[in-house]
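Problem 3 from the worked examples.
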Amino acid sequence: MEQTNSTAHLSAANLTMAYGERVIQKNLTFEVGQGEIFIIMGGSGCGKSTLLRHLVGLKEPARGQVFHGQASLYDVSQKEQKNLMQRIGILYQSGALFSSMTLFENVALPLQQYTDYSPSEIRELVMFKLSLVGLDGFENHLPAEISGGMKKRVGLARAIALDPEVLFFDEPSAGLDPISARRLDDLILELKASLGATIVVVTHELASIFAIGTDSIFLDAETKTMIASGNPKDLLDHSKDSRVIRFLTRGQSR
């Protein structure tokens, strides 16, 4: 089954997410354009991370479709779905590093599993990816030996190891102090510019939303659907929905 709009890098059509009989979100229809930094936002428990799982192929929708380009992610063959998923990179909220492996080994893992590169080529690529995230000289450290912000950057280096077309971030600033969070935002912007990747970010952090977001959707836990979409700054300036404004101002006046 194919998508009709060829300009969208990712899209969802009439998507309903559920765990058994419990509906999390329904009737989600949106598009993520090539090169956008697309924010999935909303209050706690609205289904932001669940939507991310649907977009990356980890959970099949109760109804509706997810498209990667022209391909319907859950309608293609297993082989084609695997190929589609190898075009994406994911930075998990915790970083999800293997504690017994060095930073080098963590970043090298996808290259060892999914490419035919030689050990010397893998080493060159890993060192390059670590340098991109500002971790030159740390390749032999274990995750326990570095800070939380550095762990996020290692996770990001691993996420970009295979030069993905789309990067997904699940609450990338969670657990970081404001300075480290801002540095991570700056790094995301730098990587977007250098890699040309489309980026999808799940977050409730206002500073990040306004600093990096070029497009967004707002998920509402009460109505169980999206109630706003667009550039976050435009939503702040022009939205008439009190729920969106409360979220984007944290209850303060505009």
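Problem 4, a separate protein:
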Amino acid sequence: MQHQAFNLNTLKNGTERQQAAYDAIVRIGVMQALRPYTPVLAGTIPLDVDIPGSDLDILCYAPDLDTFAAEAEQQYGHIPTFNAQTKPINGHATHLVRFQAFDFDFELFTQAIPVEQQNGYVHMLIEHRLLALFPQSREPIRNLKRGGLKTEPAFAHHFKLIGDPYIVLLQLARLDDADLLRRFTT
């Protein structure tokens, strides 16, 4: 089940950029078109740590990537910026679709893994929790992103995490909020 924080309706009443993202998503109809693939908007825009140029990342679950690829091309292949490829990411075949619509770059990230188990989703959950516990972190993380860091490395740098940011965030996700508070307030 999708986490309430990432429900599209929260964007409708969010920041100006979140409202624009909501409008773009509704106008292109991507969530409706991808409904069989349990699409979830992920990334910096729902977390409100986006910067100019941040894209709309949509995580999908497709047991058959070839079927997904064909349907995505049928839906969005007419868009001049459409680009699609299948490649391994973290040892899993991943189909990536990119296109631009309504002033946003869209990326459909699809694996044969349920969305709630994909690393991008788990990263987003822990990032959301950290921002809820430490809301003063939002602007410093945004500044790190403006300086060129990707989202996970920006969180790792801000919270002084040691090791691969992508792995360390997955490990942090196992902690409850009390443990997170203890870890980052002592």
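Solution to problem 4. The chain has ten helices and five strands. The domain at 4-115 is CATH 3.30.460 (Beta Polymerase; domain 2).
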